[in-house]
Amino acid sequence: MIVLHTRTAVIDLHGLAEGPPYQKIRITDIAYSLAHQCRFNGHTAQFYSVAEHSILVHSLAKESFPAPGDAVLRLYALYHDGHEGITGDVISPVKTKILNGVLAKLEHDIDQNIWRVLRIPPPSEAIRALIHEYDLCVAMHEREFAFEDWQLDKGFSRWPDSRIQFLSPTRARQLFMELTVKELTCLRS
Fold it and tell me: Residue 131 and residue 136: Cα distance in Å, rounded?
Protein backbone atom coordinates (compact mmCIF):
# COMPACT_ATOMS: atom_id res chain seq x y z
CA MET A 1 0.00 0.00 0.00
CA ILE A 2 1.38 3.40 -1.03
CA VAL A 3 -0.58 6.10 0.78
CA LEU A 4 -0.84 9.78 -0.07
CA HIS A 5 -2.55 12.29 2.18
CA THR A 6 -4.40 15.06 0.36
CA ARG A 7 -5.99 18.02 2.07
CA THR A 8 -9.15 16.07 2.94
CA ALA A 9 -8.52 12.40 2.09
CA VAL A 10 -6.11 9.49 2.10
CA ILE A 11 -5.48 7.77 -1.24
CA ASP A 12 -3.90 4.37 -1.84
CA LEU A 13 -1.84 5.08 -4.96
CA HIS A 14 -1.19 1.39 -5.51
CA GLY A 15 -4.93 0.67 -5.68
CA LEU A 16 -5.88 3.51 -8.05
CA ALA A 17 -6.05 1.32 -11.13
CA GLU A 18 -8.28 -1.19 -9.41
CA GLY A 19 -11.39 0.95 -9.31
CA PRO A 20 -13.38 2.05 -6.26
CA PRO A 21 -10.69 4.21 -4.59
CA TYR A 22 -11.61 6.92 -7.13
CA GLN A 23 -14.27 8.09 -4.68
CA LYS A 24 -11.42 9.26 -2.46
CA ILE A 25 -9.99 11.63 -5.09
CA ARG A 26 -11.80 14.86 -4.45
CA ILE A 27 -12.02 17.56 -7.08
CA THR A 28 -11.72 20.20 -4.35
CA ASP A 29 -8.37 18.64 -3.33
CA ILE A 30 -7.20 18.72 -6.95
CA ALA A 31 -8.17 22.41 -7.26
CA TYR A 32 -6.53 23.27 -3.94
CA SER A 33 -3.28 21.51 -4.82
CA LEU A 34 -3.04 22.92 -8.37
CA ALA A 35 -3.67 26.43 -7.04
CA HIS A 36 -0.80 26.11 -4.58
CA GLN A 37 1.77 24.69 -7.03
CA CYS A 38 3.96 27.07 -9.00
CA ARG A 39 4.57 26.30 -12.68
CA PHE A 40 8.07 25.71 -14.02
CA ASN A 41 9.28 24.36 -10.68
CA GLY A 42 8.97 27.85 -9.18
CA HIS A 43 11.35 29.52 -11.62
CA THR A 44 8.99 32.32 -12.59
CA ALA A 45 9.20 36.07 -12.00
CA GLN A 46 6.05 35.86 -9.84
CA PHE A 47 4.02 33.02 -8.37
CA TYR A 48 2.08 31.46 -11.24
CA SER A 49 0.02 28.37 -10.43
CA VAL A 50 -0.74 25.17 -12.29
CA ALA A 51 -4.43 26.00 -11.70
CA GLU A 52 -4.10 29.31 -13.57
CA HIS A 53 -2.29 27.48 -16.39
CA SER A 54 -5.20 25.01 -16.57
CA ILE A 55 -7.68 27.89 -16.63
CA LEU A 56 -5.84 29.36 -19.64
CA VAL A 57 -5.88 26.01 -21.47
CA HIS A 58 -9.62 25.88 -20.74
CA SER A 59 -10.03 29.40 -22.18
CA LEU A 60 -8.40 28.36 -25.47
CA ALA A 61 -10.69 25.34 -25.67
CA LYS A 62 -13.69 27.57 -24.98
CA GLU A 63 -12.70 29.96 -27.79
CA SER A 64 -12.67 27.06 -30.25
CA PHE A 65 -15.56 25.10 -28.74
CA PRO A 66 -18.05 27.50 -27.11
CA ALA A 67 -21.22 25.41 -27.59
CA PRO A 68 -22.95 23.92 -24.54
CA GLY A 69 -22.46 20.46 -26.07
CA ASP A 70 -18.69 20.94 -25.94
CA ALA A 71 -18.57 21.14 -22.12
CA VAL A 72 -16.84 17.76 -21.84
CA LEU A 73 -14.01 18.92 -24.11
CA ARG A 74 -13.59 22.05 -21.97
CA LEU A 75 -13.46 19.85 -18.84
CA TYR A 76 -10.67 17.80 -20.43
CA ALA A 77 -8.81 21.05 -21.04
CA LEU A 78 -9.36 22.28 -17.49
CA TYR A 79 -8.25 18.96 -15.97
CA HIS A 80 -5.47 18.10 -18.44
CA ASP A 81 -2.96 18.42 -15.57
CA GLY A 82 -5.37 17.23 -12.88
CA HIS A 83 -3.07 14.34 -11.98
CA GLU A 84 -0.54 16.95 -10.83
CA GLY A 85 -2.91 17.69 -7.97
CA ILE A 86 -1.75 14.29 -6.66
CA THR A 87 1.76 13.83 -8.11
CA GLY A 88 2.90 17.44 -8.08
CA ASP A 89 4.04 19.37 -11.14
CA VAL A 90 7.03 17.33 -12.24
CA ILE A 91 8.88 19.33 -14.87
CA SER A 92 9.22 17.75 -18.32
CA PRO A 93 13.00 17.20 -18.26
CA VAL A 94 12.65 15.16 -15.06
CA LYS A 95 9.73 13.18 -16.48
CA THR A 96 11.52 12.29 -19.70
CA LYS A 97 15.16 12.02 -18.65
CA ILE A 98 15.03 10.68 -15.12
CA LEU A 99 11.69 8.99 -14.53
CA ASN A 100 11.66 7.55 -18.05
CA GLY A 101 7.92 6.84 -18.21
CA VAL A 102 7.54 5.53 -14.65
CA LEU A 103 5.28 8.45 -13.76
CA ALA A 104 3.10 8.03 -16.87
CA LYS A 105 1.25 4.98 -15.49
CA LEU A 106 0.44 6.74 -12.21
CA GLU A 107 -0.68 9.88 -14.08
CA HIS A 108 -2.89 7.73 -16.31
CA ASP A 109 -4.49 5.99 -13.33
CA ILE A 110 -5.13 9.29 -11.57
CA ASP A 111 -6.61 10.79 -14.76
CA GLN A 112 -8.93 7.79 -15.13
CA ASN A 113 -10.13 8.32 -11.58
CA ILE A 114 -10.68 12.04 -12.19
CA TRP A 115 -12.81 11.25 -15.26
CA ARG A 116 -14.87 8.84 -13.12
CA VAL A 117 -15.37 11.45 -10.41
CA LEU A 118 -16.47 13.99 -13.04
CA ARG A 119 -18.63 11.26 -14.65
CA ILE A 120 -17.19 11.77 -18.11
CA PRO A 121 -15.57 9.17 -20.39
CA PRO A 122 -11.81 9.28 -20.90
CA PRO A 123 -10.80 11.52 -23.82
CA SER A 124 -10.03 9.98 -27.19
CA GLU A 125 -6.50 10.18 -28.59
CA ALA A 126 -7.67 12.91 -31.00
CA ILE A 127 -9.03 14.99 -28.10
CA ARG A 128 -5.83 14.40 -26.11
CA ALA A 129 -3.80 15.64 -29.07
CA LEU A 130 -5.97 18.75 -29.41
CA ILE A 131 -5.69 19.55 -25.70
CA HIS A 132 -1.93 19.00 -25.93
CA GLU A 133 -1.76 21.65 -28.68
CA TYR A 134 -3.63 24.11 -26.44
CA ASP A 135 -1.27 23.21 -23.60
CA LEU A 136 1.81 23.89 -25.75
CA CYS A 137 0.39 27.20 -26.96
CA VAL A 138 -0.27 28.35 -23.40
CA ALA A 139 3.18 27.14 -22.28
CA MET A 140 4.92 29.24 -24.94
CA HIS A 141 3.07 32.36 -23.83
CA GLU A 142 3.66 31.59 -20.18
CA ARG A 143 7.37 31.56 -20.81
CA GLU A 144 7.11 34.96 -22.45
CA PHE A 145 5.25 36.55 -19.54
CA ALA A 146 6.42 34.55 -16.54
CA PHE A 147 10.16 34.72 -17.25
CA GLU A 148 12.41 37.65 -17.91
CA ASP A 149 14.21 37.85 -21.29
CA TRP A 150 12.28 35.02 -22.98
CA GLN A 151 11.87 34.84 -26.75
CA LEU A 152 8.87 33.11 -28.33
CA ASP A 153 9.76 30.06 -30.41
CA LYS A 154 9.16 30.24 -34.14
CA GLY A 155 5.64 29.36 -35.19
CA PHE A 156 3.92 30.83 -32.14
CA SER A 157 2.22 34.19 -32.53
CA ARG A 158 2.18 36.63 -29.65
CA TRP A 159 -1.09 37.03 -27.78
CA PRO A 160 -2.35 40.60 -28.17
CA ASP A 161 -2.38 40.95 -24.39
CA SER A 162 -1.18 38.86 -21.52
CA ARG A 163 -3.90 36.58 -20.24
CA ILE A 164 -1.70 35.66 -17.32
CA GLN A 165 -2.91 37.43 -14.19
CA PHE A 166 -0.63 35.79 -11.59
CA LEU A 167 -3.68 34.89 -9.52
CA SER A 168 -3.38 34.22 -5.81
CA PRO A 169 -3.84 30.57 -4.84
CA THR A 170 -7.22 31.41 -3.31
CA ARG A 171 -8.47 33.16 -6.45
CA ALA A 172 -7.06 30.47 -8.78
CA ARG A 173 -8.78 27.74 -6.76
CA GLN A 174 -12.07 29.66 -6.76
CA LEU A 175 -11.98 30.24 -10.50
CA PHE A 176 -10.98 26.62 -11.19
CA MET A 177 -13.93 25.37 -9.13
CA GLU A 178 -16.34 27.90 -10.69
CA LEU A 179 -15.37 26.67 -14.16
CA THR A 180 -15.77 23.05 -13.04
CA VAL A 181 -19.27 23.69 -11.71
CA LYS A 182 -20.22 25.72 -14.79
CA GLU A 183 -19.05 23.01 -17.21
CA LEU A 184 -20.61 20.17 -15.23
CA THR A 185 -23.90 22.10 -15.04
CA CYS A 186 -23.75 22.68 -18.80
CA LEU A 187 -22.98 19.01 -19.38
CA ARG A 188 -25.82 17.78 -17.19
CA SER A 189 -28.50 20.12 -18.54
Answer: 9
Q: What is the dihedral of CA 133, 62, 23, 167, to 10 degrees?
A: 90
pLDDT of residue 18: 62
pLDDT in tens, 84-113: 999 888 887 777 776 666 788 888 888 998
- Among 58, 60, 43, 41, CA closest to 146: 43
Q: How far apart are CA 40 and CA 21, in angstroms?
A: 30
Per the rule left: phi > 0, alpha: psi between -120 and 50, beta: everything else, 39 is beta
Contacts of 89 (CB under 8 A, 6+ apart): 37, 38, 39, 41, 50, 81
**pLDDT, tens digit, 9 for 90 and up, residues 122-144:** 999 999 999 999 999 898 888 77
Give the span between the Cα atoms of 80 and 38, in whole angstroms: 16
Q: How do the domains of the chain map onto residue ranges?
A: 3-188
Is the pLDDT score of 151 beyond 60? no
Contact status, residue 76 vs residue 68, Cβ threshold 8 Å: no
CATH level 3 topology of 3-188: Hypothetical protein af1432 (1.10.3210)
